[in-house]
Amino acid sequence: MDYSVGVLLRRAEKTVDMFACLAPFDLSLWACIAGTVLLVGLLVYLLNWLNPPRLQMGSMTSTTLYNSMWFVYGSFVQQGGEVPYTTLATRMMMGAWWLFALIVISSYTANLAAFLTITRIESSIQSLQDLSKQTDIPYGTVLDSAVYEHVRMKGLNPFERDSMYSQMWRMINRSNGSENNVLESQAGIQK
User: Fold this and answer.
1) What does the alpha-carbon distance between residue 72 and residue 45 come to, in Å, rounded to a whole number?
2) What sections of the protein cross the membrane (predicted)?
3) How many CA atoms, within 13 angstroms, populate the side-chain half-sphere of residue 121?
């Protein structure tokens, strides 16, 4: 027979977050990345506008702002692009952009793997003091048990220095003990 005292908590319900793929980065970082895509797209357009590439005979490639933005976005998500930029300044800019994209995507992948593998169980109750301080989770015990009598005697004692037991007794004794307490431990497990 086991005479030890234990605490039984209900398992936390798991919720599925539809936007969990955005969790590895903060909203401010996502905004910075979107702003950087727009800024680099504009810079690529301006570099090609100031120094247009020499097109081969029969080539119909145009370097519009839309094409530049699409090329920068496509290279960020590692899907390449259709517009060949041949000027040295643009190639250097795109080389730096690809390095930036590689670093951002690598850190995103590492953070996403960490978020998906670690289950985040946030239990705020680690001790009897934590249990007595919180009011969100109702708790009780088996009526007329040793734990019930111990908490009652300590909670009703006016000379007790620790207010933990008086707080616990107020929670346990709600509605004269009928709200949070059970008559036997099996009823508490099913509750």
Assistant:
1) 10
2) 27-47, 96-118
3) 7
Could you tell me the residue ranges of all domains in the chain? 20-53+61-117, 131-190
Match domain 131-190 to its CATH number in 3.20.20.60, 3.40.190.10, 3.40.630.30, 3.30.1250.10: 3.40.190.10
pLDDT for position 12? 65
Lowest mean pLDDT segment, chosen from 14-28, 119-133, 158-172: 119-133
- Provide Rg for the chain, Cα atoms: 32
Q: Angle formed by the axes of helices 27-50 and 88-117, to 10°?
A: 170
The fold of 20-53+61-117 is: Helix Hairpins (1.10.287)
Q: What is the pLDDT of residues 14-52, one digit of tens each?
A: 777 788 888 899 999 999 999 999 999 999 999 888 887
HEC assignment per residue over the chain = CCCCCCCCCCCCCCCCCCCHHHCCCCHHHHHHHHHHHHHHHHHHHHHHHHCCCCCCCCCCCCCCHHHHHHHHHHHHCCCCCCCCCCCHHHHHHHHHHHHHHHHHHHHHHHHHHHHHHCCCCCCCCCCHHHHHHCCCCCCCCECCCHHHHHHHHHHHCCCCCCCHHHHHHHHHCHHHHCCCCECCHHHHHHC
Residue length of the chain: 191
